[in-house]
Design goal:
By secondary structure, the protein is mainly alpha-helical. About 55% of the residues lie in helices and about 10% in strands. The relative contact order is 0.09.
Length: about 170
């Protein structure tokens, strides 16, 4: 009886492809964040993920749609969801009256600070899981993929010189 060579199957190749791994890692991150926020008594809504695409001084809804790869109508629905929670607001863009600018409310900014405390904890969990060196290399690699090779970005993540630094 002859053995087949140890060659990955098509399904193995797909399962271990970078696209799927990134999607699965994102799903894990979102699940951890949702669980932590709910455990802390914070609100959660699937539309919360839009907050990653809103700059602290506000962002045009069209730019959010571009960043997320979704329609402006979908952005509008998500913004309305978070408006109902008092976290976001929409206003006419001062530079273009036809455009809408999405901003955090003061409650929304406070929520984001609390959310980022939870994100810091999740990052520490990942660092413990894969090791500090791998975690740093993963962050730096993803940073290059996301933003290109730029000298103006911090090497080890936002306000995170080393473990435990506050955001």
């Amino acid at each position: 009886m002859s053995k087949k060579p140890n060659k990955p199957s098509f399904d193995d190749t797909r399962r271990l492809g970078i696209g799927r791994l990134l999607l699965m890692a994102r799903r894990d991150f979102v699940a951890r964040l949702q669980a932590r926020l709910l455990a802390a008594g914070e609100p959660w809504h699937p539309s919360m993920m839009i907050s990653s695409y809103v700059d602290s001084d506000g962002t045009r809804s069209g730019e959010i749609a571009k960043r997320m790869g979704i329609t402006k109508q979908a952005v509008g629905r998500m913004v309305r969801d978070l408006e109902s929670l008092g976290l976001l607001t929409q206003e006419p863009d001062p530079l273009d009256g036809r455009a809408t600018r999405v901003r955090f409310t003061s409650a929304g900014l406070r929520y984001m600070v609390r959310m980022h405390r939870q994100i810091d904890e999740i990052e520490r969990e990942y660092e413990a899981l894969i090791g500090a060196e791998r975690f740093t290399a993963t962050r730096e690699g993803l940073q290059i993929v996301a933003y290109g090779k730029r000298d103006d970005l911090p090497r080890s993540g936002p306000n995170r010189g080393r473990r435990g630094a506050a955001r």
